[in-house]
Amino acid sequence: MINTHATEISFLLLVGWLVLLITLMAAFRSSYSLLKSKPANAFDPKGDDVGAFGRRLNRVHANAYEFLPFVIVTLLFAITTEHTEMTDGLAPWVVALRIGQGLTHLVSTTVPAVLVRFTVFFIPQIVILGIWVATLLNFYI
By the 8 A CB rule, do 132 and 87 touch? Predict the structure, then answer.
């Protein structure tokens, strides 16, 4: 069997997505501080004080660090236990769905956009994560 390294690549892409979001947050807040003369230590953690796009960027960033650890830990478990055959097929889909969810959130908060975000988050990602955990756990029960 050929190892495609899809799990390992997906793991790194998910970490990269979080790094990109952190970088965007830093750049956005830095430019906001410079252009609007807002003190760097005066930002609302919820993002309610930086306009609609700033709020959305803040939520995308928060969504990433709230959920990505579950996916990353599961992928890391598969890698370290040498069971990536269980995650290789769906791992790229999780990456695409996470990025798609974030980009949809950055673009819009309309009802159709929220429905798209929910669809690409809950149905595939929760289902996929559940399948991975159940399948990997099956090796140890």
Answer: yes
DSSP 123: I
Instruction: Return d(Cα 36, Cα 3) in angstroms, integer.
Output: 51
Sign of CA dihedral 40, 44, 47, 53: negative
Task: Report yes or no: 24 and 57 within 8 Å, Cβ to Cβ.
Answer: yes
**What gap in Å lies between CA 33 and CA 13, rounded to an integer?**
30
**In the structure encoding, which two tokens stand for residue 141, read together?**
């029960």
The beta strand positions in the chain, using DSSP E, are: none
Task: Kindly list the distances between the CA atom of residue 139 and the CA atoms of 6, 83, 86, 87, 103, in Å, as whole numbers in the listed order.
Answer: 21, 9, 11, 14, 36
Nearest to 68 by CA among 22, 107, 111: 22
Residue type, 108: S
Chain segment 114-137, per-residue pLDDT in tens: 999 999 988 888 999 999 999 999
pLDDT reading at 8 higher than 70: yes
Give the three-class secondary structure for 114.
helix
Whole-structure pTM value: 0.88
Q: Average pLDDT, stretch 96-112?
A: 94
